[in-house]
Amino acid sequence: MSGTRESIASARRMVVKVGSSSLADASGHLSVPAVRRLADVVAGLRAGGRQVILVTSGAIAAGLGPLGLPARPKDLATAQATASVGQGALVAAYSAAFATHGLTVGQVLLTADDMVRRSHYGNAQRAFNRLLDLGVLPIVNENDAVATDEIRFGDNDRLAALVATVAHADALVLLTDVDGLYTAAPGTPGAERIDEVHGPEDLGGVDVSRRGSALGTGGMITKLEAASIATTSGIAVVLASSADAASAVAGDAVGTLFHPTGKRDTTRLQWLAHAARTRGAIVVDAGAARALQGRRASLLAAGVTEVRGSFESGEPVDLLGPDGALVARGFAGFSAHEADQMKGLSSDSLRDRLGETYARELIHIDDLVVM
Ligand SMILES: Nc1ncnc2c1ncn2[C@@H]1O[C@H](COP(=O)(O)OP(=O)(O)O)[C@@H](O)[C@H]1O
Ligand SMILES: N[C@@H](CCC(=O)OP(=O)(O)O)C(=O)O
């Protein structure tokens, strides 16, 4: 077993994405047995102490039956309506399946905007962290009922990769109806499965032009895009058949492994260090400045003396030492208004005065870059 598969086996936080093609039966309706099989695998991960976020397609597949539609609708309005009907049925099926394992689920519906705009990004990050802290299993899908063509992903592969980066996951597992990436669409004479991808250079001759299954969207193209987003952020990816889900999440040599190519959060933090226009500043005391520079610790409200400007949670801010010198930059975990109320307070005081939601770091260590 290679090192990265070992890191999949030991991933503390994992995003598991399952596609429509794995959740529908032959007639295109949601397959409840498929939902149960997946729930058994995810519950096994949870029993082993791992945190899991499940990104699941299938709302449209689940809506076809109740609406008496023969196939996935082509026009946006009907697709929105079908997803609206099906999403409830999808989550109800998961809820029942996970309840048999004593697990509570929480539905999170996102649009592309939620993952890309930094003010929203912080909100999603906070919601995932809190759900996971509470032991809840977040079940994510695109908010198809309101997503218009301009803002929608359409497929859930890239959504899953962005969820993995936002939630600081250690691994992303993409489950589909094919047992890995092939050199050409499976069934093409001579097509062979690829075991491992080390970087874009391994994808030179690979043909992913054939579209996906009747129910899925995006085929292999969006899975490669998802793998690229995750691996350049330092997250290992496994693409495998949902029939092999248990082996894939265990780090066994099934499907295709995409090795991380970048450092964790490199892209975001480089953007933060070099390109971001900050919306405000947080002035810290000498102790906090030393902690930030030396130990790379999270920024706690106790070390903050002043909050300047106007920013929302998730937006970039400058962190200034007591002498006004730029020490670090970070993505604020709270808005300027909230940070101002929190400044100087210990975690206990934050909990007593402002409530549990505020009893955590102002900026997480993973959201900081020392200048
Ligand atoms: N090079 C390739 N290797 C593997 N699968 C491919 C390739 N090119 C196209 N495909 C197709 O991609 C499909 C999976 O994509 P999709 O139907 O969108 O799945 P999902 O619903 O799981 O997201 C496979 O069924 C396969 O036919
Ligand atoms: N959000 C849509 C999923 C779109 C879709 O089919 O995605 P995928 O199965 O990842 O190709 C749904 O729930 O039906």
Task: Describe it.
A hairpin with a 5-residue loop joins β11 and β12. 39% of the residues lie in helices and 18% in strands. α3 crosses α5 (76-99) and α4 crosses α5 (76-99). Strands 3-4-2-1-5-7-8-6 form an eight-stranded mixed beta sheet, with helices on both faces. A five-stranded mixed beta sheet has the order 10-9-11-12-13, sandwiched between helices. The chain has two domains: 3-264, Acetylglutamate kinase-like (Carbamate kinase), CATH 3.40.1160; 267-370, PUA domain (Archaeosine Trna-guanine Transglycosylase, Chain: A, domain 4). By secondary structure, the chain is an alpha/beta fold. The chain has 14 helices and 13 strands. The protein has helices at residues 3-9, 20-23, 32-47, 59-67, 76-99, 112-116, 118-133, 157-166, 219-232, 245-250, 266-275, 286-295, 336-342, 347-354; strands at residues 13-18, 51-56, 105-110, 137-142, 171-176, 196-197, 236-241, 256-258, 280-284, 304-309, 316-320, 326-331, 368-370. It is globular, with a radius of gyration of 22 Å. The structure holds adenosine-5'-diphosphate and the ligand N[C@@H](CCC(=O)OP(=O)(O)O)C(=O)O. Residues 19-22, 57, 176-178, 181-182, 184-186, 206-208, 210, 212-213, 216-220 line the site of adenosine-5'-diphosphate. The ligand N[C@@H](CCC(=O)OP(=O)(O)O)C(=O)O binds at residues 19-20, 57-60, 83, 141-142, 144, 155-157, 212, 216-218.
Q: Can you describe this structure in just a few lines?
A:
This protein has 14 helices and 13 strands. The protein has 371 residues and is of the alpha/beta class.
